[in-house]
Design a protein that fits this description.
single chain; alpha/beta; TIM Barrel; 3 domains; 9-stranded parallel sheet; 17 helices; 21% strand; globular
Length: 672
């Protein structure tokens, strides 16, 4: 999808405020440089106050005020938060949670995604909205629902699950075989006997206790259910318009109840919500690499630039009062998403609300509606984007490194985390942070992505591994690529059953190694490894897993130096076609990943964009052959950066060479 301008705007809830205030809001928005506003995503009760009675007059009026100031509109379908009259109609419209409890009214996202009656009403409200707004030039697109997700375990879902299974397995014998239901005598003789994987009251740390094959399929089915639900609304919209875009606001890297690669298939482009600092984060967790990882993940979903539909505009709090970002941080965080591929940014929200659950979630304006420090900071950004937005728009991030992740593997680890200290997302994040600290850009790609164009592909703990994925990786390595595996790779097949092979299973041959013993380390004990590579001769502590390796064709590059497996291989490198395959038999801390990443990137001829002090992030985007280099200072000190050539500062058009000092929480965009 191509846009003619960089969109900069805000999420606005005019229905929360007196109509007399709307013109003043819109004048302030215009002055801040906003050219887009998202409306209506939680306004179902205002648009359909009673069953079948629709009222768009108020929305027409606000859209007119906005469009008179050349501010365009994205409309949200309001289905994340249904009105009470709808939910009062049938008890089973409410979701059942994983403990088997049916939700009640009073929050949002309470609906069952498979309920035919909810489908019917969602289709109707979406259709009515589009019928009304398809021809409105100010409305350029649609956001479906809000942050889809939350699994349901009700009887309607159970029936749908049975249908889903019938399609996947055709006959029950096949399912019984693939799931290995002979274990504990779970051999099904009728589809209707198959349960949903409720969290049973089991002793601590024994997890769900359901058959992992059943459970993985249920997680997949739930993800598909939301995709179907989203598609129903997309179809409603496409009855009336082919011009307005359709997107959905996803939740970044950490959310994992949906297979986001599937979720975005039916959308024109990806949008997501970027919250750096909320009431739920500790100060110590504020890590610039987290938001960067989310942005790179969102860009990787379609391998295209994205919109940020909700960018933090103040502190994020619900029951506790938000911790306000420091001066400079809102702008810095917003530019960070641009550095990673945003072609539009909308701040959440315009004005802090006086009523409801989110009274402590700060908008651009405070409760009183008088512009203050946050407004001024965003206005500064607005005036900068008026100058440079067109240069940024559509510029591409082109990393040479990919980290491969899979939602099937995520779902499988949700069911069986394998080791109490192991967290797949954290493992990816740790590896990503190694690249981030080295200023080496990364794409986060799916297990199905073509790997053409990359030099190095890191494949952390790819637990569920198929023949197809293996062929893809082999082809990449044969063609000269560097592939890196870590423990828990190749353990399971597509049905979440353990492979009948030595680990790392299907990729054992390309890695030239077999795992003799996989040791799940105690939570209070680490091991140690010693590397013996020419530019990496260090010792590191090793944690969580110790895969004792037996090279078949690979060369050993690290040994364990502790415990009964001392002296045995801990990491190997195998020549494979024109490329190399590395197996790292353990996990480690930040120093380990930073060292590993630098050394192994060197093997792939991938180098840091620039060397910078810790806390200064570097990212690049390319517009044709023009390079845009972003330097972002996330620290509270001035930072002096040694440059590698002559540049122009895009923000003031002045030339710069040798060194540059970036003030605290500030940034610079350089062009060659
Ligand atoms: C987002 C959500 C918004 C708002 C915000 C603050 O995740 O999409 O609707 O709730 O959080 O809580």
């Amino acid at each position: 999808m191509k846009f003619s301008k960089f969109y900069f705007g805000v999420d606005y809830y005019p229905e929360h405020w007196p109509e007399e205030r709307w013109p003043e809001d819109v004048i302030l928005m215009k002055a801040a440089g906003f050219n887009i506003v998202r409306l209506a995503e939680f306004a179902w009760a205002k648009m359909e106050p009673q069953d079948g009675q629709f009222d768009f007059d108020w929305l027409d009026r606000v859209i007119e005020i906005l469009s008179n100031q050349d501010i365009q509109v994205v409309l949200g379908t309001p289905t994340a938060s249904p009105p009470p009259w709808l939910m009062a109609k049938q008890k089973d419209l409410f979701r059942v949670d994983s403990q088997g409890n049916r939700l009640t009214y009073g929050n949002r996202r309470e609906y069952c995604p498979n309920h035919p009656f909810y489908h019917q009403h969602s289709h109707q409200i979406a259709s009515k909205m589009v019928e009304h707004y398809a021809g409105n030039k100010a409305v350029i697109g649609w956001q479906i629902d809000n942050e889809l997700g939350s699994r349901c375990y009700c009887n309607i879902c159970r029936d749908r699950f049975h249908k889903w299974l019938q399609k996947r397995y055709q006959d029950l014998d096949n399912l019984n075989k693939k799931w290995g239901t002979v274990f504990w005598s779970h051999i099904y003789t009728d589809w209707s006997q198959i349960p949903v994987p409720l969290k049973l009251p089991l002793p601590a740390n024994t997890g769900y206790g359901q058959n992992p094959s059943l459970h993985l399929d249920y997680n997949r089915f739930m993800s598909d259910s939301y995709r179907t639900y989203q598609k129903l609304q997309i179809d409603a919209i496409r009855q009336y318009t082919s011009e307005q875009f359709i997107t959905h606001n996803l939740m970044g890297f950490r959310y994992d109840e949906l297979n986001y690669y599937d979720t975005v298939e039916d959308l024109d482009f990806v949008s997501w919500d970027n919250y750096w600092r909320t009431q739920w984060n500790m100060e110590s967790e504020l890590d610039p690499s987290s938001a960067a990882l989310s942005a790179d993940t969102m860009r990787g979903l379609k391998r295209q630039n994205f919109w940020v539909m909700e960018q933090q505009s103040g502190g994020g709090g619900w029951d506790t009062v938000a911790i306000t970002p420091k001066p400079g941080q809102l702008r810095l965080w917003a530019y960070q998403t641009i550095a990673h591929g945003a072609d539009a940014i909308l701040f959440f929200r315009w004005r802090t609300c006086r009523t409801g659950t989110e009274q402590n979630w700060q908008g651009v304006l405070e409760h009183h509606g008088i512009p203050g420090r946050r407004y001024d900071e965003i206005l500064q950004m607005g005036s900068e984007l008026e100058k440079i937005g067109r240069v940024l728009l559509g510029a591409q991030n082109t990393p040479q490194v990919a980290i491969m992740q899979s939602y099937d593997t995520r779902f499988a680890f949700q069911i069986q985390p394998n080791n109490p200290r192991f967290d797949y997302k954290q493992h990816i994040q740790d590896i990503y942070r190694g690249f981030f600290r080295a200023n080496i850009p990364v794409d986060i790609v799916s297990e199905k992505t073509s790997l053409d164009g990359y030099k190095l592909v890191f494949v952390p703990a790819m637990y569920i591994l198929t023949e197809k994925m293996t062929r893809n990786l082999e082809q990449f390595a044969k063609g000269g690529g560097v592939v890196i595996f870590t423990p828990r790779t190749g353990v399971k097949d597509d049905f979440n059953t353990v492979v009948n092979k030595k680990l790392p299973g299907l990729v054992s041959q390309m890695a030239g190694v077999e795992v003799e013993e996989y040791i799940s380390m105690p939570i209070d004990e680490d091991s140690e490894i010693q590397f013996a590579l020419s530019d990496l001769e260090s010792q590191f502590s090793a944690s969580v897993w110790a895969d004792v390796l037996k090279p078949t064709t690979a060369q050993t590059v690290a040994h364990f130096t502790k415990d009964y497996y001392t002296g045995q291989a801990a990491a190997t490198i195998n020549a494979f076609g024109d490329g190399k395959v590395i197996y790292l038999g353990t996990m480690g801390d930040d120093t380990y990943y930073e060292a590993i990443v630098r050394t192994l990137s060197g093997l792939a001829d991938v180098h840091p964009l620039l060397e910078t002090p810790i806390g200064v992030e570097v990212a690049e985007r390319w517009k044709g052959d023009q390079r845009l280099l972003f330097l972002l200072n996330h620290t509270l000190q001035n930072q002096e950066i040694q440059l590698d050539g002559r540049y122009i500062n895009l923000l003031d058009n002045k030339p710069i060479k040798d060194t540059i000092t970036i003030p605290p929480l500030d940034l610079i965009v350089l062009v060659d």
